Structure formats: C-alpha cells, structure tokens
C-alpha cells in the first residue's frame, strides 16, 4: 500500500493498494479514514511519503535550530535528489502527522516504511508529477501498473501513492536499498542493480 500523505486532513492524501501489478486508488482526508482503509486492506507493508522520524539529537519540531537533516536526507543530497527538509514550514505538520500515523499503524502490527516518490521516480527514470500528470501516468503504465492507473481523473496525489506502492512491492521483493541510520529511521529507495538482475 502506498500513501502520499498530506500535512493537513483538509488536503488530499493519495491512497493506492497494489496487488501484483493491479492498483486501486482513491483520495482520503482524515487520519480515521486513512487508518480505516489500511486496516480493511491489511497490506503486507505500508509505504508512506512523509518523514517518519526526527533527526538524531532533535527532541521535537517545536524547538528551532539544528539538526535539520537526518542521515537519509544527507544521502539524498549526495545523490543530487531534490527534497524539502522536514524542519521547513509546512513539512513540520507533515512530519508530525507521518510520525503519529506510523506509531499507530505499527502498534496495530503493520510494517511501515518511509518512501519518497520523487526519489523513486528519479531513480527509475520517470518524470515527476510537476512535468505533467499524463507523463507520469504513462511512465507508471509502461512500468507495468494496471487497473486504476487508467482512470481519466486520477490525481497527482494518487500517482505518487502508486509510486509509493511500487516501492512497497520492491521492498517486499528485496529490490531495495535502505539509506540513513537505524536510530533515526531508514528511507527506502529502489535498488536498480537488483531490479535488473531479476
């Protein structure tokens, strides 16, 4: 399952359930709605587009000042992958929500991983949604995704959720790399070398 989480319950959260290559997508809003859908679907893994851990040495998001970056964020910088730091304005609300949902889902027994669709798309050679939703949709279809991906009114949030779900499948298949450090949470990215060998 992939979730392109919004910082606010008033904004679209993209949802995707991927079984083999067949996807179902929708737009969700409240935490209750999200948790209800996850519990109903009971996926093997939930891949969330949101920071799910604070940097080591940072007690909370309320206190200003360093550290602003986790080891996985520094690795994204090294890979020249664009992202927003979790301490930046609107990202704080998203980080708080992501951490809260992760704790609830893990206490329910679900495996939760942190994904980043922009990085997944960059690594897999797909356009990001800013380059046009249709371009990203076509790239996901070419990657083999079927089902709900073909609905005409699919949103960018749903397309990013599909990307998160693909990452979840790669994780389950062992075609992934974990970047960062264990005590501040790993970010999962595709491992293209393993993907080519399968």
Describe, in short, the structure shown.
With 198 residues, the chain is α/β, with parallel strands linked by helices. Helices cover 40% and strands 19% of the residues.
**Mean pLDDT level:** 91
Structural classification? alpha/beta
Proportion of residues in extended strands = 15-25%
Radius of gyration: 16 Å
Q: What level of helicity do the residues show? A: 25-40%
Return residue spans where pLDDT drops below 50 for at least 5 consecutive residues.
none
First-last Cα distance: 22 Å
Can you tell me the overall shape? globular
SSE string, helices as H and strands as E: EEEHEHHEHHEHEEH
Note the topology:
Blueprint: E1 2-4, E2 13-19, E3 22-28, H1 31-41, E4 46-49, H2 71-78, H3 89-107, E5 112-115, H4 117-123, H5 133-142, E6 146-147, H6 156-173, E7 176-180, E8 186-190, H7 192-197
Parallel strand pairs: 1-4, 3-6, 4-5
Antiparallel strand pairs: 1-2, 2-3, 7-8
Would you kindly provide a written description of the structure presented here, covering whatever features stand out?
The strands form two sheets. A six-stranded mixed β-sheet has the order 5-4-1-2-3-6. A two-stranded antiparallel sheet has the order 7-8. It is built from seven helices and eight strands, in the order βββαβααβααβαββα. The protein is 40% helix and 19% strand. It has 198 residues and is α/β, with parallel strands linked by helices. The protein has helices spanning 31-41, 71-78, 89-107, 117-123, 133-142, 156-173, 192-197; strands at 2-4, 13-19, 22-28, 46-49, 112-115, 146-147, 176-180, 186-190. The chain is globular. Helix 4 (117-123) crosses helix 6 (156-173) and helix 5 (133-142) packs parallel to helix 6 (156-173). The two termini are 22 Å apart.
